[in-house]
Amino acid sequence: MSSLSSIFNIGANALSNAQIGISVTSNNLSNAGVEGYSRQTVQYATGPTVSSGGYTYGSGATVSEITRHFSYTVESQYLTYSSQASMWETITSTLSSIETLFDDSDDEGYDLSTALDAFWTSLDALAANPESEAARTELTGYAETLTTLLNSTSASLEAVQTSLNSQIEQQVDDINDLLDTLAGLNSQLAGDPENATLLDSQATALRELSTYLALSVVYNDDGQATVYTAAGQTLVQGSTTHKLAYEGPQATQSLTSASTFDGQIYFEGESSHEITIEFVTSGTADGSAGAATYKVSLDGGETWLTDDSGNTLLFTASGADDKVTVAGVSIWFGSSTDSGAAASGSLAVGDDFTVMAKSGVYWYQTTSGKVNVTPIDVTDSDSNNRLSGGSLAGLLATRDQYVGSYLETLDALAEELVWQVNYVHSQGAGLTNFSSATSGNSVDDTTAALSDSSLAYADRLTTGTLSISVYDDATGEVSTLSSIAIDPASDSLEDVADALNTTFSGLLTASISNGQLTIAAADGHSFQFAGDTSGLLAALGINTFFSGDDAGNIAVSDAVLNDPNRVNAAVVDASGEVLSGDSTCANNLAALADAKVTLDLASGSTSRTLSKQLAALVSTVGTDVDTSARKYTYYSTLAENADSLQQSISGVNTDEELINLTRYQQAYSIAAQLIQVANSMFETVLSLRD
Questions:
Q1: What is the pTM of this model?
Q2: Please, which residues have CB within 8 angstroms of residue 160's CB and are 6 or more apart in sequence?
């Protein structure tokens, strides 16, 4: 009877095996269209042998396991390629929209390059006919178009950055939600490590996370996944998460054991750069002769700012009264409780400070300990322990590395355009004399040396002379042509006013109100500016063509817009007269089209004409779009290939599953028949006993 019992057991097991196979196959078929589902198959093992009557024979087969078909090696490749593809897709998408701002930005194809060329052409027209009202009106019209395009381009770039900030903040929240999801799945898998549904959910969550971040994943034997950033920061370990945070501008410090510094670094302004400060000499932070000095890096310490000779620039640690400006950010040191008070103690060689004059992303290792993971350069193979892939890195890189760079260049170009044109224009004379002139720019401290003042172009001032020709309105004769000497390193705005009042006593009066200088002629007199080798007029905004100092605020000066006769085409000659038909100033202005100017940028200095500087910027944008698009294509292709390989392993092939279903149905029928045979044999045996 034991053999009959064995046949029953084999048949029952075979029936159960077929049922499990049909169930698994049915599950595969029902999930064939479900993204993230991994195909499962039933694995069988031969049962133990049985000995009876001197013979040894098998006991059938049993289900050994249900296998989830999934390659962790292939998935690791996919996650890597997916994060890179996502990053470059994000960059490409934004840069493609930005490209139109610089090239054929409207239906007529009138872009910045066209506007700048038209401005130079209108200056040529003025030089050819210096007293033409039409030429002056045309010049101011083209200049307004140019400044409007600069303003709108700057505003559009800033709007892009604002939008990117919103997206960054949202993505950080999405990432943290995914980290919670993965931690929750780890908790469930700890008690059920073979649960295929949980493992599929884990793989799906990791794929989604990889679109945001470049990941490194370690799969544990218990089914749990330990998740790291590509740089090695732990994000999920077991049921614990280490989250990201999006935070505003801030500064951090790392002091050596030799440092006795008791204070804080402070800053004002915004920058797309991360400013790294490292002290190279020890001392106080009060700006004195014994103060410590430091070097500055804008790329995380890879390189350090240098002067024109290639020597590392050194800055003196100073207080609020002597701030250092780097990349548009004013930096100083003060006490921990008062930014205006002096810091105590001494700084030591090796003391480090980091100024983030922008919002950034931080990884919280503990509730109180955080690490800045905002990328510096996503094109650098060394990520410096920063985010290096995924759409979050793409958003941050687009905001800082690309859009920030474009804005920096555009601002530098506008700043140089304003200075170059205003310096030449301030030397000239218009068709009508001045009765008074007030500076468009002001200083915060009228007693401070001009070179240390708050004027945007204070660093452009040089030792020189300011000359003015005063006329008798009744006769038209020159009353005086006199000059004052200006030394910006020692002279303040009050000193300039005093010198004017002394030199032109009874003819001109210089006064200061709200930091602005006003020069007024006495009754019955008027004046023209006869030259200024110091650059003070251009810095103050007196007798100038443009106002502003960057792409966002550049404009044609109100004086020129309100009275085209204020466009300076002529100059005052040696006798103090303005000769009719003189085009000296207009010619000098037109010559600026061919003059090389230097733009000092974080990426280095470039010396070209203004038109070529703009063309280089347009070319850079186009190249960046092309490069990012090619990288997106490259990595997306690799990701697709890895996904296809994974699908060949884990994907459900309905044709194969239908074949399997038929096979299991047949096995089920055969098993049932086997049981029937065994039952018939059993009944026969029983009938023999009757």
A1: 0.90
A2: 94, 97, 98, 398, 399, 403
